[in-house]
Structures are given as structure tokens and as C-alpha cells.
Request: fold
Amino acid sequence: MDVIGGIVLVTGALFVLLAAIGTLRFDEVYARMHAAAKGPALGVLLTGIGTALIIRSVQSMAAVILVIVLQLLTGSIGSHMLGRSVYRAMRPPLDGPDELDQREHHT
Amino acid sequence: MSAVRLPAVLVWIVILWVLLWGNLSIANVVSGLVVAVVVLLFARTGMERSERRHPEHRARLSPIAALHFLSFFLFKLVEANLVLAWEIVTPRNRINTGIVEVPLRTESNFATMLVADVITLTPGSLVIEAEGSPPVLYVHVLHLHDLERVRRDLLRIEELSVRAFGSPAARSQLAGSTP
Reply:
């Protein structure tokens, strides 16, 4: 059980590391946000599960579930607010269509 | 909020508080009660207003559909990370960004929040604007290669979340308009 927990824990940390590399490597605001918003979500999930597998008590399980749920709920609210302000403040260039912009031209 | 639900929410917040501190002591329960009352004083008004406006949209949990939603979400989360990890470690650039309009069919606040949350946590999609009623989400997509397919995938998330947590009214709204 400890071994499985350890593997899960390290895998989670690996995803956070990848997210960090992605944030550095991508050259555009939104691409960076995609990296920054998603890696940590799975990272927290896996580190949480790994921790619970190693500690194995009801109390730690409850705390872990709480941490994961709150992290997932609040993390995406943060990225939404950030994405929205970025759009309003600087209109980063897009490769494809921008249906939000099209709507604003209609009204 | 009805008279029955208010104490239930109060107790729930106290339980969360005690869990966060990790041990059950009188001090924890008392401070938890104080926190719960303060939280409810601030949060109640908003919840009450939205329930008064849409009394038919009270969320109702359906366990099997919720399980389906949860497994779909976990699958998507892992997929999101793998796609992104691949994009990060390979030099080839498949990025083609764009903003997609996703008109939702549900009017439920809770379902909208869930959908927006899941979209933000899944493969290369990020909600950047939400407005209107029924809400329209504007989603930034990292790998935009097939516009209609992306839209369909995102609406599928809505369908699953309404099936799992939506009110009967929201469910019939969904059934009434198939995309």
C-alpha cells in the first residue's frame, strides 16, 4: 500500500512539474493558463490520493477529500476570472475564430 | 432557503470546520458554529434570491447519474493532463486557439457552475465569459480543429451534469431541446 501511495504521489508531483514547464514553454497568455490551470488539478488529486493511501486513517481521508473538492471548485473559478480579465484588458491574438468578438459586433 | 435546510447547512459547515482542524474538541465545535453563522449571514441572501427566482430549479441528486458524471469528469481530467503533457514535451506545435460560443440549455445556476468548472478542468478548454439566461458560455480552446465537435463535446458535459444534479425542470428543459 505504501508503495502504491508513493507511486501515486510522485506521479502527481510529476504533473505539477509538467505544468510548470508548460507555463514557461508556451508563449501565449492563454496557452500558459491552460498549463497552469490543469496540471495542478490532477496533481492535487493524485498527491491527495497518494497521501491518503500512505496514512490510511478515516480522518486523513476526510481531509483529503475536502482538499481535493475545494481545490477543484475554487481553482477553476480563479482561472475563469483571470481569463476573463485577460480578454477584456488585452485581447490576446487567436489562431482560429473568436465567437465572443463576433457576438459583440452583432449587438 | 427553507426552515429545514438552514440548520442542515449550519451543521454541515460545522462538520467541515471540525474536519479541517482534524480533531473534535469543544473549542473547535464552538468556533465552527461562530464561523457557520457568519458564513450563512453573508451567503444566505444570494442563495435565497436565486431560489425564489427559480423555485423549480432546486438541485436534486441522482446517484447513478452522479457517478456517471464523476467518472466522466475524472476520465476527462486525466485526458486533459495527458494531452497537455504531450503538448509540453513534444516540440511539434498543434496549438490552434479560438473562442467557441456554447449556448447552454439549462437555466439552473448550480448546473451552469458545474459545467463551467468541468470545462475549465478538461482538455485545453477554459471558460472566459458567461452571460445571459439561459447562460451562454464563451470557451477558449487550445486545440481548435473542429468547431462543431468541440461544441458538441462541451454540451455533453452539460447533459451529464444536469442528469446528475439538475432539478426535474432542468431535466425536462434538456429533453425538450436536443442539439
Notes: Chain A has four helices and no strands. The interface with chain B takes residues 15, 18-19, 21-22, 25-26, 28, 30-31, 33-35, 37-39, 41-42, 45, 59, 62-63, 66, 72-73, 75-77, 79-80, 83-84, 86-87, 94-103 of chain A (CB under 8 Å). The mean pLDDT of chain A is 83.
